[in-house]
Hints:
The protein is mostly helical. 62% of the residues lie in helices and 0% in strands.
Amino acid sequence: MGRTSTPKPHPRTEKSSRSSPFSALRRGGQGVRTAFTRKLLAWWARAARDLPWRKTRDPYRVLVSEFMLQQTQVSRVAEYYPRFLERFPDLETLARARPRAVREAWDGLGYYARASNLHALARVVSRDHDGTLPDEPEELIKLPGVGRYTAGAVATFAYEKPVPAVDTNVSRVLRRVFWRSNHAPRTTHRVLWNLAAALVPKSGKSAWKFNQAVMELGALICVARKPRCPECPVRPVCRTGKSRRTDAAGENRSSKNR
């Protein structure tokens, strides 16, 4: 799937989720952060998919991709994305369009409220921001259909702001890397976003790559079901990966002693 939101907080795990991920960073200090980032970006350089929205820093085009990727397969978005942009090549063209035309261009992608919100957003930006999308998450989140993730994604992927963008893929990677088990507590939004903010490089270009890479890792390797741990580039610093490797070794020793 494409973008989905992070899980809702679990009231009974607030205390443990607050301390667990940062304990790994505190114990390893800068070394853990550096190792995680270095291994992740090295993998990204050789394994990243060639997707059209990664070739642009145009805020409008990035925005369109993020709206389309919500609850939608990447392969499906790759089919619709260029056609939509051909019909509505810029924000002002979209703002002037009739609702029916926007709906027709979106037809087949589903979740049609996204098209309505995107159209409403274009009109608001055209009217209130001189046709230019804001570059700060705090302003982006005020626009129709924009949540915290989309605000962060547009800020970092279009404007290369060193800010986090936590979707379900990122949430899953962070939970597995910084907790001991795949059955880690369902962490709160605040904890996950604070952890992501601590990890994002402060350089804009590096932040862009880092955020893209974490999402890609969650989409291709650290998947929800049957994660491909043996292929994971960050397994040496992953608490869940280490735990699984230890458990597997224990099972092998036990079977040999039977």
